[in-house]
Amino acid sequence: MSLRGQGATIWLTGLPSAGKTTIAYALAERLRADGHRVEVLDGDEIREFLSAGLGFSRADRDTNVRRIGYVAGLLAANGVKALVPVIAPYADSRAAVRERHQKAGTPYLEVHVATPVEVCSVRDVKGLYAKQAAGELTGLTGVDDPYEAPAAPDLRIAAHEQGVHESAAALLALLSERGLA
Ligand SMILES: Nc1ncnc2c1ncn2[C@@H]1O[C@H](COP(=O)(O)OS(=O)(=O)O)[C@@H](OP(=O)(O)O)[C@H]1O
Ligand SMILES: Nc1ncnc2c1ncn2[C@@H]1O[C@H](COP(=O)(O)OP(=O)(O)O)[C@@H](O)[C@H]1O
Fold it and tell me: Is 146 annotated to bind ligand?
């Protein structure tokens, strides 16, 4: 099979405003330009459709992550690069997704977008950190809700120390190293 036809799930985990979505779309653009089939499973869109009605309790986040992992696995098994910019705060939910992929023989890469909370809270794309600080929201990942950082991701990106294009290039290099691009 050609590298372009080889599917894979690339999961970008990290705090809100870490840069997961921005980096995923930058990578998607580069992969598409190279002729790969790509889907970005955007967390917000998934929560509007596939995971409508789920909240941010541990159980709901777990359900959300498993559902997304299932869909990404289907896409990846059919030649698509499935890019998943979703927080996935719990190590055991992420491990379950990885295990499902491994059992199916589908390539899976975990990427930690490791922007520190101090930087994320300044970026605050959706105003969530400000709302939490104002007491209008509780259970914000990385602030008053857990984020279990991956102990051994396939790649850790310091998205506060390098630009978006550099991060996308590092991801492309990883895919190439693994025989996926
Ligand atoms: N309480 C709380 N904690 C964390 N995130 C919150 C919360 N409330 C809303 N949001 C926004 O929901 C976006 C999607 O979350 P995810 O589906 O990626 O989260 S999870 O994996 O199910 O935990 C997530 O998107 P990103 O900012 O793109 O990460 C948040 O902006
Ligand atoms: N080096 C960088 N890498 C990624 N995003 C960055 C970087 N520097 C600034 N940003 C900005 O930070 C924000 C990250 O938002 P987003 O990608 O939606 O994060 P997430 O999906 O992790 O919540 C965007 O507005 C993006 O333009």
Answer: no
